[in-house]
Amino acid sequence: MKTKIALGIDIGGTNVAFGVCDDKGNSFYETSVPNASYETPELLIEEIYRLIDQQGLIESIVGIGIGAPNGNINTGTIEYAPNLSWKGSIPLASLFEERFNKKAILTNDANAAAIGEMIYGNAKDLKDFAIITLGTGLGSGIVINGNLVYGHDGFAGEYGHFRIIPNGRTCGCGRKGCLETYVSATGVVRSVTELNSPNKEASALSQMESISSCDVFDLADSGDAFAEEIIDFTAQTLGSALADYACFSSPAAYILFGGIAQNGAPFAAKVKSYMEQHILNIYQNKIEIRVSALHDKNAAVLGACSLVWNELN
Predict the structure, then answer these.
(1) Are the beta carbons of 179 and 237 closer than 8 angstroms?
(2) Cβ–Cβ under 8 Å, residues 132 and 159
(3) 131: Cα within 13 Å, side-chain hemisphere
(4) Is the CB of residue 267 less than 8 Å from the CB of residue 216?
(5) CATH number belonging to domain 125-291
(6) Res. 297 pLDDT band, cuts 50 70 90
(7) How many CB atoms lie within 10 A of CB 30?
C-alpha cells in the first residue's frame, strides 16, 4: 500500500494490543495477543513482525509508537513494571528498531491513551484533563495546557501508586495501600475476598471458583447485594482519590478508560458523586467525569500511533 502508516502498540498487564493507522486515525489492521505467552520481549516483537508482515504492511510503516507500563519516553525503556512478567529494565524501543528498522518511540501506556483521547476521542475540546486507565492496574496520563506532563525523568503520572490506605493491600510495586490494589480490574476481584460484609455468604460470588471484574459488575446489575457493595466501594475509593488529585492540576475533566470504565455512565456517576463529597470547595462542581469514546477503537493504540505523527511534524 502507498499510504504512510504508523504501528501503534499498547502493552497492558494482560494483553498486548497493536495496530496500524494513518495520521487521520484510520485503522488498517488491529489485533491483540496475551503477553503471558511470550517469555521475552524479543519473542513478542517477532510475533508482531510476523502478523504485520502477513498483512503486507511492513514497508508502509514510517515509525513505531509504543505505550507500556513504566515506559520512559526519555530512554525508550520499560523500568521495573510490576504488572509485567518481564523484570528489570527492558530497552523495548531499541529492540523494535532493530527488528523493524524503523524509528520507535516509547512512553507510558496511559500517556499514549491520553494522546489518543485528545486527538481522536472525548478530550478533543480539552486542554487540561487526566485520563485514568482502569485495567490490570491503574494508570494515568496528565495533560496541562495541551501538553502531556512527563516530569524530569519521564515518569510523571503514576496515580495508581499513590498510597491511599496506610499498610493496606500489598501492591506489585512492593509497597502497601496503592490505589490500584483497590481500583482496577485486579482490585475489584481482590475485594471479593478481602471485603467483609453480612451479604457475602449469600452472594453468588461466594459460589464461583473463578471471578473476573466483569462478573462483579454483572451481578451488581442483577441485584446481588455484595457485588453492589464492591462496586460502591470501588467508586468511593476512586472518587475520593480523584478529589485529592484535583489539587495538583485542577483538570476540567477526568476521563475513565479501560475494562471497568466500559460499565459506562452509571459507574462514572457514582465516581462523580463521591468525588464531589470529598473535593476541596474551590473545585466543587467544576470537574467532569467522562467515559472514553474510544473503547471500541483502542485509545492507547491510536495514541501510540500519534507519537509517530508528532515526531514527524
Answers:
(1) yes
(2) yes
(3) 33
(4) no
(5) 3.30.420.40
(6) low
(7) 15
> What is the distance between the terminal CA atoms of the chain, rounded to a whole angstrom?
22
Instruction: Judge contact between 159 and 179, C-beta under 8 A.
Output: yes
3-state helix, strand, coil in the chain (%, to 5): 40, 20, 35
Of the chain, the percentage scoring pLDDT greater than 70 comes to 98
84 versus 230: the higher-pLDDT residue is 230
Q: Model confidence over 189-219: pLDDT tens digits?
A: 999 999 999 999 999 999 898 999 999 999 9
Q: Which tens digit of pLDDT belongs to each residue from 20-35? A: 999 888 889 999 999 8
- Please name the residues in contact with 89: beta carbons below 8 A apart, sequence gap of 6 or more: 77, 78, 79, 80
As given in the structure block, the three cell numbers for residue 135 are: 485495567
Let me know the angle formed at the C-alpha of 262 by 256 and 268, rounded to the nearest 5 degrees: 50
Q: Quickly tell me which residue has 529494565 as its cell.
A: 89
CA 56 from chain centre, in angstroms, equals 30
How far is the C-alpha of 35 from the C-alpha of 280, rounded, in Å? 41
Domain coordinates of the chain in residue numbers? 5-115+297-312, 125-291
* CATH 3.30.420.40 given to domain 5-115+297-312: yes
Distance between CA atoms of residues 126 and 25, nearest Å: 19
Q: Is the pLDDT of residue 128 over 70?
A: yes
Give me the helices (H) in 250-289, please.
265-278
